[in-house]
Design goal:
Bound molecules: S-adenosylmethionine
Strand order of the largest sheet: 1-2-12-9
Largest sheet: 4 strands, mixed
Number of helices: 23
Radius of gyration: 24 Å
Number of strands: 12
């Protein structure tokens, strides 16, 4: 499935600088570019215990083998260790042994570039000219000092000639503007990645493509159908945030004012959803009916139009929420933090009354509450809240079903369902005594695990790439779920049949429909949960 790297044609767009464009017509979920061995990847300090420093596979620290020399990095096996030794660790290992701590990630990136003799000079023929905002960064004293300090450290550590300082400082600016956050399949950040070919992709708050990592391999994948010659846009920021938040981040880090359609007209998630080209997948349809999502979005757009003043009046409360997360989270006890989140939510009661759940910061507050439940092992409540977030926020904020954030959410729902499935019903009720018994009536959680995994399995190749680690993991978990079902002698075979024929009217289709209806009912208790669930 490799695509020739030279296929995406570069185009000169006068307003955005260099960019990428599609070389041929592309369908959602297609891999536009696949680069098997990325130019530069550095695992950050916080992830060193959690991932193999060469192939970037996640594993328990106890199963990864520590480098006996520096004791800092870990590997899956001897093959990964030898490959990394050859690539960079031979140098880095002795550096780590000399230093009291692992140097900052950008310094290690520069060090690696210098030790590997990567072509970092801007006029180098192997790196096409890229925006590095050297002048802008130079003008900000704090940033300039930091960049110079980091460049000096890298030059010193790598024993490079001091004459390289200028190039190194420029490359540092290039990294600041062009590096990607390397991530695990579930979007957990694990380091820094620089890939010159893909760094040319420009930004839009309504992107038509996205970056995906699969170990050391980096993919550019399509969200929408894209015609040959059309520009490719990824999003540099969380595009579900408000326009102010997005623009501030883009200005500060990338030095431009975003003028995409969403920014120009301050479009809401519901408007973007209505304009999006969404591929309807029959199995997913049984969980969320896209027709009713469309109707709901349309009526939210009308409601928002009639509530312009009231919505404007919420701005101070919204600003308060952002400062809350930054300040209180670090100092308050978890219970106090949860109470503040609920306060923030009740300050936005106008949005709840009008069922406008997809607008920032409503989903962010719900997310924080959900994460607080997870952190405190309130997993039944976390499940109910996540189902609500998925069905009321995510489906609008990430309109394309193959968006990796959406698919990862579904997979997290599977994990929580599996936890509940492992408990006796009476134990579940003890954990959430405030839930009425009938809330769980319609659901067999073991069946629900299988049905949801079928949805994730359908999406994983178009969200994470065919044959990727994530796809293999989902396939493995689906096989396990089927085996459990086989031993139980339940509806597993019928669901399996539905998986291959997608027939909503078949026995399996009807069973899946009932399961999803049960899950939607459960999501309907999200506010009961938030009212009653303490830590
Ligand atoms: C990662 S680079 C993308 C490639 C860049 N256009 C180039 O010519 O090298 C990021 C920089 O591209 C420019 N850029 C990207 N998206 C843009 C947009 N939507 N509007 C204006 N400038 C943009 C900004 O200067 C930004 O700092």
């Amino acid at each position: 499935m490799d695509i020739n790297n030279s296929q995406p044609v570069k185009e000169r767009d006068r307003t955005l600088g260099n960019g990428l464009a599609a070389a041929k017509d592309i369908a959602p979920g297609d891999v536009i570019v696949r680069i098997n061995d990325t130019f530069l990847i550095v695992v950050e300090k916080a992830a060193l215990e959690q991932v193999c420093s060469y192939c970037l596979a996640e594993a328990e620290a106890s199963t990864l083998k520590r480098c006996v020399g520096c004791q800092k990095v870990r590997y899956c096996n001897a093959t990964c260790q030898q490959a990394d030794w050859k690539l960079i660790h031979k140098s880095e290992c002795s550096l780590f042994r000399r230093l009291p701590d692992v140097p900052p990630t950008p310094v290690r990136a520069l060090y690696q570039a210098l030790r590997r003799n990567l072509p970092i000079e801007q006029d180098s023929s192997s790196i096409s000219p890229q925006e590095h905002h050297f002048e802008e960064l130079k003008n900000e004293k704090k940033t300039r000092d930091e960049i110079l300090l980091q460049a000096r450290a890298a030059v010193e550590f790598s024993k490079s000639p001091i004459s390289k300082m200028d190039d190194v400082a420029k490359f540092m600016c290039l990294l600041t503007t062009n590096a990607f956050r390397a991530t695990l399949p579930d979007d957990t950040p694990i380091g820094l990645c620089y890939e010159p070919k893909l760094a040319l992709a420009n930004h839009s708050c309504i992107p038509n493509s996205f970056i995906m990592f699969d170990g050391r391999c980096i993919l550019l994948m399509a969200l929408n159908p894209i015609k040959a010659g059309e520009s490719l846009f990824i999003s540099y920021v969380d595009f579900t945030q408000s326009r102010e938040v997005r623009r501030a981040e883009l200005r500060q880090r990338y030095f431009f004012e975003c003028n995409c359609k969403k920014c120009l007209h301050d479009e809401s998630a519901y408007q973007v959803f209505q304009d999006a080209t969404i591929v309807h997948l029959e199995k997913q349809e049984l969980f969320y009916h896209s027709k009713s999502l469309g109707q709901h979005a349309e009526s939210r757009i009308n409601t928002l139009r009639s509530l312009t003043q009231e919505y404007k009046a919420l701005e101070p409360r919204i600003a308060k929420f952002y400062s809350l997360v930054e300040t209180i989270k670090a100092t308050a006890t978890p219970s106090e933090y949860l109470d503040s989140l609920k306060d923030a939510l009740s300050g936005l009661s106008m949005l709840k009354a009008n069922q406008i759940f997809a607008l920032a910061p409503y989903p962010m507050i719900l997310d924080e509450i959900y994460l607080t439940y997870v952190d405190h092992n309130k997993l039944e409540s976390a499940l109910i809240l996540l189902l609500f977030i998925f069905l009321n926020c995510d489906v609008y904020n990430w309109p394309q079903p193959n968006h990796p954030v959406r698919v990862t959410r579904l997979f997290t729902i599977v994990r929580l369902l599996r936890y509940v499935a492992s408990l006796e019903a009476s134990v579940v009720f003890q954990h959430v005594p405030f839930m009425p018994e009938e809330a769980f009536d319609k659901i067999d959680f073991v069946d629900a695990v299988q049905a949801m995994l079928i949805l994730v399995n359908e999406l994983a190749p178009v969200s994470h790439g065919k044959g990727s680690r994530f796809v293999r993991q989902v396939e493995e978990e689906l096989r396990e779920a089927e085996e459990v079902q086989r031993l139980r002698g339940g509806v597993g075979e019928k669901l399996k049949k539905w998986q291959s024929d997608s027939d909503a009217k078949s026995d399996g289709g009807k069973i899946a429909s009932q399961i999803f209806e049960g899950l939607r009912t459960l999501a309907g208790y999200a506010f009961t949960v938030m009212e009653k669930q303490t830590l």
